[in-house]
Design brief:
By secondary structure, this protein is mainly alpha-helical. Helices cover about 75% and strands about 0% of the residues. It starts with a helix and ends in a 5-residue tail after the last helix.
């Protein structure tokens, strides 16, 4: 018994040693910065790195700032525009890629390609395509829409690029979930006279719902944290910035341009709280539509 206990203790030590780099990295790169951000949100940062306690002044300023509430609405609107459409299109593409068609391996690679391209490159190409004067979009459709500088359509323009960028990755995840469904279910349904639509409704959709839930959570978090596309496509000086500016973009402006790091930290905490609330609602609601039974 003593030898067994000694062996187990030695195994535990090796296990702790193996996970130590990950735990240390998590504490140093995630936990500590988050705690420091919370503290900084209640402080007034000085020019040369010092700080002094400011109480709730940053939060009072934030909740009374019209620009902050506009950025919050822009972030929520961006989620509404991108998440439902993006996930639905990804599900349709995953079903098509799972069908018996020629060259489906090539199609999978093509759809996944945007995920391996740098976001900056994606944004610059689409910015050129949406150019009001010589862009491909206006040329093909014979329109004269200011896609990037018009406040009424700029958020839709960025949403289109965001959906296109994530479509292949989401489709591949959903495709893996669909391929894990046993073919015996479809064979039994065919013998019972079920149509393809009925098979999708009563077999594919319930069985792929766990993967669909994961994709939905991932896409919601990514949409709530959108920054790179806005920075590259809209940017400072654009008259439509106020209609597209997200919470993370506002954080960037306040922290790195204006130097209001305390106020910027309060914006980050609000963003984290918003993500937490939406995620909690999703986890509560999953009980009604996600099927984990085999």
């Amino acid at each position: 018994m003593k030898k067994k206990k000694k062996g187990l203790n030695q195994d535990n030590k090796w296990g702790y040693l193996m996970v130590a780099p990950t735990i240390i990295g998590l504490l140093v790169l995630n936990v500590y910065p988050f705690i420091d951000t919370i503290i900084l949100s209640f402080s007034s940062a000085k020019v040369f790195g010092g700080r002094e306690f400011a109480g709730l002044s940053n939060y009072t300023k934030m909740f009374s700032d019209a620009e902050f509430w506009r950025a919050t609405w822009n972030t929520v609107l961006f989620c509404i525009l991108t998440v439902p459409v993006g996930v639905l299109l990804a599900l349709v593409i995953a079903i098509l890629l799972n069908a018996k068609i020629k060259g489906k391996v090539a199609f999978r690679a093509i759809f996944f390609l945007p995920m391996v391209v740098a976001p900056a490159a994606v944004a610059m190409v689409w910015k050129w395509m949406f150019n009001a004067e010589y862009g491909i979009i206006n040329t093909v459709f014979h329109t004269k829409i200011d896609w990037i500088t018009n406040p009424n359509v700029v958020i839709i323009t960025v949403a289109i690029v965001a959906i296109w960028s994530a479509l292949g990755y989401d489709a591949v995840l959903l495709l893996s979930g669909i391929q894990n469904i046993s073919k015996s279910y479809y064979e039994a349904a065919s013998l019972d006279g079920c149509t393809k639509l009925q098979q999708f409704r009563y077999i594919t959709l319930p069985m792929v719902s766990p993967t669909l839930f994961v994709v939905l959570i991932m896409r919601l978090m990514a949409s709530l944290k959108v920054y790179d596309l806005l920075y590259m496509m809209v940017g400072e000086g654009n008259p439509a910035l106020s209609k597209a500016q997200s919470l993370i973009y506002l954080f960037y402006r306040e922290s790195f341009i204006s130097g209001n790091r305390g106020y910027a930290s309060a914006i980050v905490i609000w963003t984290v709280l918003l993500i937490g609330i939406i995620t909690a609602v999703q986890f509560i609601g999953q009980k009604k539509w996600v099927n984990y039974e085999v």
